[in-house]
Amino acid sequence: MVKVTDGINEGDIVALFSLSGEMIGFGTSKMSSKDMIEKSKGIAVKTDRILKVKKQSKEI
User: Fold this and answer.
1) Positive or negative CA dihedral for 4, 30, 41, 22?
2) Contact, 10 vs 29, CB < 8 A?
């Protein structure tokens, strides 16, 4: 986990983003944002859906 938004509570629906900022899925939080920051291990989110990510072609 690279970044966490404040105000997440256990049971909230949360979005999952790639490092480039694209939404790649969503799930249900299994701990609060405070716990996500303080704990070094554990399951933070139960993934409900992963979105299909389109690969961008590079023009030459």
Assistant:
1) negative
2) yes
Count Cβ atoms below 10 Å from residue 21 Cβ, excluding itself.
6
pLDDT tens for each residue of 22-38: 999 999 999 999 999 99
Residue range 11-20, pLDDT digits in tens: 999 999 999 9
Q: What's the per-residue H, E or C state across 11-58? A: CCEEEEECCCCCEEEEEEECCCHHHHHHCCCCCCEEEEEECCCCCCCC
Q: Which has the closest alpha carbon to 14: 28, 33, 32?
A: 28
pTM above 0.70, yes or no: yes
